[in-house]
Amino acid sequence: MRLEIVAENGKIPNDKIIEAADILKSGGIGIIPTDTVYGIVALATNPDPLKRVYELKMRSFSKPFPVQVSSVEHASEIAVIEGEICTRLIERFWPGALTIVMFRKPKTKLVFQPEDRIGLRMPDYPLALELIRNSGFLIAPSANFSGEPAPKEPDEIDPRLVRLVDFVIYAGSCPVGIESTVVDVTRGIKILREGAIKKEVIMSALENARK
Question: What is the pLDDT of residues 123-152, one digit of tens each?
């Protein structure tokens, strides 16, 4: 590990955010807090750091990681945002603990992602959003080895994992503490994973919504 950053009064100096972003843009990976849990971050457009994360997570390359975005406009660069279901979910739950699988725009430069769909999330966490703005599209799966619980506190991160990344940002507890809910809206409404946002809350928000 090359860089360790500890928040002071819950804040990270902007120069440290830029330093972490530069590591990501140069092909590194790191661990950061988000609104849900601590995650392993890497550029979604660079295959080499992505491979490192897949290997650390013992995950098949055929199972794409959701992509983290900093705004709706940022998301619209790679995804087709249309239909009342999709727009209502974004308006109600972004930024926040909801990953939305939507249709992907053709010819977007993303690695290990299907050609037709893309899962996107906008974290409700200023530090994470600032890092995305300074580096680009990121993946941020939970910072744990396969079979271990997702860490919501700094001391819950496995020290073995810390030694395998290029930077770590510690900023106390993650406010939500549970991984995001994942909803696929490409063919109606399909909840792929129930996480921080319960199914009934999702369905209530979509009452009478049209495709």
Answer: 999 999 999 999 999 999 999 999 999 999
Give the start-to-end residue ranges of the domains of the chain: 3-205
CA–CA dist 69, 137 (Å, integer): 6
pTM: 0.95
The dotted CATH code for 3-205 is: 3.90.870.10
Q: Which of 121, 40, 110 is nearest to 75 (CA)?
A: 121
Q: Which residues, listed in sequence order, are joined to residue 167 by a DSSP beta bridge?
A: 3, 30
Please give the full DSSP string across 168-206, using - where no structure is assigned: EEE-S--SS-SPPEEEE-TTS-EEEE--SS-HHHHHHHT
What is the amino acid identity at position 130? E
Q: CA dihedral in degrees (181, 42, 88, 202; nearest 10)?
A: 0
32 beta partners: 39
Residue 158 phi, psi dihedral angles, 5° rounding: -65, 125
| Helix H or strand E segment including 16 | helix 14-25
